[in-house]
Amino acid sequence: MAGPSDVCVLLPTMDEAATIEDVVAAYREEGFENVLVVDGGSTDGTQRLAAEAGARVIEQSGEGKGQAVREAVRDHIDAEFVLLADADATYDAADAPAMLEPLRDGRADHVIGDRFADIRPGAMTRLNRIGNRLINRAFARIHGQDYRDILSGYRAFTRESFEALSLAAEGFGIETEMAVECVKRDLTVEVVPITYRPRPEGSDTNLHPIRDGGIIFLELYRKAKTNNPLFYFGSVGTIATIGGILVAIYVLYDWIAHGIGHEILAIVSAAGILLGIQLLMFGFLADMILTLHRERLGDGD
Predict the structure, then answer these.
(1) Which residue numbers delimit the Glycosyltransferase 2-like domain (predicted)?
(2) Least confident segment among 22-31, 171-180, 235-244
(3) Which of 183, 202, 226 corresponds to the end of one domain?
(4) What confidence category does residue 2 fall into, taking pLDDT thresholds of 50, 70 and 90?
């Protein structure tokens, strides 16, 4: 069985001076000596405090959490397992063994910590709770898997499985992208209940709920192109068709009731309906091709 020496605790940071020492110390107390802090250019002393607490510290070459994670795994981690956490003290180092157990037992390639299993008062605003629920439901609907908390920053994965993922997100979209890629690559994912705590006083979040939530929804939709083409093309096709029909109803009503013709609107209506039907047909065809492709891969195994 792998021990703590086969695990690298990865902590992306950006101005986390208020919490970084305690977070690094907590993982070291759990027996994890290999703690890697990848810093995005903090100006509050985060790097110095992390190093003093016993972490290995590097400064990332680019910007954003996603880029930090990719660079760390690609260039600075040799351990078999990676435990990814935030440096804001919201996650409990004591949950690390449970997060790593499915990897060590060979049950999973990727583990997601479910914050909603034990979320403490004040850890998440009502707006964030609603946004998280909507995003998780959208993910389950679009990609066909319910991982319960795809935005969780507490992850554990094998380095080998991570290298199989095609990741490009720069910021907080990295969690969503990893979840989508796990579905696409047919990786085994296990969800583990964890504790989620409020940020300590004096620790400010780098997350912007409206902006980052919008980015995550767009990422979910964009990734549906290859995972669920029927939804990707069908949703736009349905909107275009319904819009065209509504315009057609208005044109027809105005012509019958008042004798007023709307030639341009009639053309727009016809174009919308035709475009919508074509997109729906393309979505069905693409979905059939994807299904056949997956069946052939399954037969090949």
Answers:
(1) 8-164
(2) 171-180
(3) 226
(4) very low
pLDDT at residue 208 in the model: 64
The two structure tokens encoding residue 58: 């590097």
What is the CATH number for 170?
Answer: 3.90.550.10
- Shared domain for 68 and 176, answered yes or no, is yes
Residues 189, 212 contacting (CB under 8 angstroms): no
Q: Which residue has the higher pLDDT, 237 or 221?
A: 237
Does residue 104 register a pLDDT over 90?
yes
Catalogue the long-range contacts made by 25-30 (C-beta closer than 8 Å, 24 or more residues apart).
Answer: 25/53, 25/54, 26/92, 26/93, 27/85, 27/93, 27/96, 28/53, 28/54, 29/93, 30/4, 30/93, 30/94, 30/96, 30/97
Q: Enter the tokens of residue 190.
A: 């296990």
Tokens of 135: 């995003």
Which residue in 204, 196, 202, 187 sits closest to 147, CA to CA? 187
The one-letter amino acid code at 222 reads R
d(CA 292, CA 54): 52
Q: At what angle do helices 263-300 and 229-258 cross, to 10 degrees?
A: 160
User: In this predicted structure, which of 159-163, 249-253, 268-272, 295-299 has the lowest mean pLDDT?
Assistant: 295-299
Examine the domain organization and report whether 110 and 212 are in the same domain: yes
Are 220 and 272 members of one domain? no
Tell me how many degrees the CA angle 23-173-161 measures, rounded to the nearest 5.
75
What is the per-residue pLDDT for 219?
75
Query: Both 87 and 221 in a single domain?
Result: yes
**Residue length of the chain:** 301
pLDDT on residue 206: 60
Query: What is the domain range of residue 27?
Result: 4-226
Q: Which of 226, 244, 274 is the last residue of a domain?
A: 226
